[in-house]
Write a structure and sequence with these properties.
mainly alpha
Length: 337
């Protein structure tokens, strides 16, 4: 096993990545100066590809100011009116495209039932990695997913003050597990850093933003978008439900992939931990989080269903990107590890 690399908590801020177009370059130029400086105009987002590298990186940069920020960037940018105006325009473009792609999605109960269905002959990423994935592909997968897992549960925590009663109590119970049940070494972001160390990857927070695909940025950006807006609390609960309901079987396959390739004990443990924990979480989320929220606010049912549909669509899109690259023998990343 390689020597342990310091975990994400030892790097309080990330490094600014490179630009991927005019929008992201404009945001980067602004962040390098004092807050209140010029930011790209909201109208600049109007014609951008809603799922493309440039818009997704620009949005990611805006959101990271609400997490750990970036080294050397003025913390006051977090609430800068000009940058918030641009962020709102980027969000509108992204959300409108997502709603268009998921139009006609099933209602919330049918959507939840669909999540529980495990295909007999699955063809997704976890199936591929379990059966034929190679160590280099597992390393790429971990590098991509590090944008999510090194902040696992953080975006969901924003919805807690927006819930009440049974939904809030159940949500916090699940989050308590995600944050290690009060033990720092069991925080899931810490466990993922240990997985990365087993795979010989750098565990610094945000280290692989430059390498990550636009599809991965979009997956992470959806969580941040939904979490930062009270109006989208129903959709965030739908996102949360999708993650928890689908996690256990997928984690079982990924644990097998780590074991088969000899990735290391911490790499296998991260997914083995999710097999048990998320099997329990799935029941709590369905019965008490969603059930409690719908009992309090039945009008949020379409929003919950949208959160499920949007999460599924973006994850499937990411899976298609990964599998297309790997089956052709090429990297799924923008830069080699």
């Amino acid at each position: 096993m390689p020597d342990r690399i310091p975990g994400p908590e030892t790097a309080p801020e990330g490094e600014l990545p490179g630009a991927r177009g005019e929008l992201s370059q404009g945001v980067l130029d602004a962040l390098r100066g004092p807050a209140g400086g010029p930011a790209p105009r909201p109208r600049d987002a109007r014609d951008a590809d809603p799922f493309g590298d440039d818009l997704q990186l620009a949005l990611y940069l805006c959101y990271e100011l609400h997490y750990r920020g970036f080294r050397g960037v003025d913390a006051a940018w977090e609430w800068d009116p000009g940058l918030l105006g641009l962020r709102a325009a980027l969000e509108r473009r992204f959300l409108e495209a997502l709603r268009e792609r998921t139009a006609g999605h099933p209602d919330v109960h049918d959507a939840l039932d669909d999540l529980l269905v495990e295909p007999v002959d699955g063809t997704g990423v976890s199936y591929f990695l379990k059966d034929e994935g190679q160590l280099w592909q597992l390393r790429e997968y971990a590098a991509q997913r590090s944008l999510y897992h090194l902040k696992e549960a953080d975006p969901h925590a924003w919805v807690i003050p927006r819930l009440r009663g049974r939904a809030k109590a159940a949500f916090v119970a699940v989050e308590f597990d995600e944050f290690g049940g009060g033990r720092a070494e069991r925080v899931h972001a810490r466990l993922f850093a240990d997985l990365m160390a087993d795979l010989g990857l750098d565990t610094a927070y945000g280290r692989y933003v430059d390498a990550a695909s636009a599809e991965m940025l979009a997956v992470v950006n959806l969580m941040s978008l939904l979490g930062l807006h009270r109006a989208h609390r129903g959709a965030l609960v739908g996102h949360f439900a999708t993650v928890e309901v689908t996690s256990s079987p997928g984690s079982r396959r990924l644990a097998e992939a780590m074991r088969r390739t000899g990735a290391g004990p911490a790499a296998e443990h991260f997914y083995a931990e999710h097999v048990t924990a998320d099997a329990v979480h799935e029941q709590i989320v369905r019965r008490d989080v969603i059930g409690g929220l719908l009992a309090d606010e039945p009008s949020l049912a379409p929003d919950i269903a949208f959160g499920i549909a949007a999460t599924t669509w973006l994850e499937d899109r990411l899976g298609d990107r990964l599998l297309a690259a790997w089956r052709s023998g090429s990297t799924s990343l923008r830069a080699q590890l």
